[in-house]
Amino acid sequence: MTNWRSDLLCTAFTVSQLPPPRGTEVAFVGRSNVGKSTLINALLAKKLAKVSSKPGKTRSINFYEVSSGGGFFLVDLPGYGYAARSKGERESWWRLVNEYFSSERDIAFVVHLVDFRHGPLANDDELTAWLDGMDMPRLVVFTKGDKISRGRGKALYNKYVSGGLASVAPPLVTSGKNDSEAERLRGLVIQIIHELGSAGRDGGVS
What we know:
With 206 residues, this protein is an alpha/beta fold.
């Protein structure tokens, strides 16, 4: 198993704190309490992302520099859809995330994390439509797969995928606790970066 060599580059709570573009970025985003921090820690093989049982704890954009696979930046966006947040806080989330996507950054694609137990909810559909409006590629990754039995999980997976779930590769089911899952996702992220890069040079994904 090959781990990613990684370090925290910086944390941005405001637009002015966003670092200047330095290379290819892959943004991870999902609803609050979707298990994003747990999965990112599994991918980085370090406890860099703070894990909390309370939703809505991550309110910053965290940039992790990954030196494996040719080098890229894993960008941890704050979770969305936490009902207890005020209207002002929700608007602040959109401003920060919108500025991130609107700036001149080399964002290869978005990893959209979806809770396997519930599938895409209204907030997830809203995010999908927003990303589609920017022609932003996305990879769907289901989290908390260990909360569902194998038999029921197969039926749920087929239901979600047959419902027209758009993803640049078949969605993966993860738990954030399985080394083989993390290894598979690491390989897929690198593969997609290279394929999308080739598409930009050659006019199509090879």
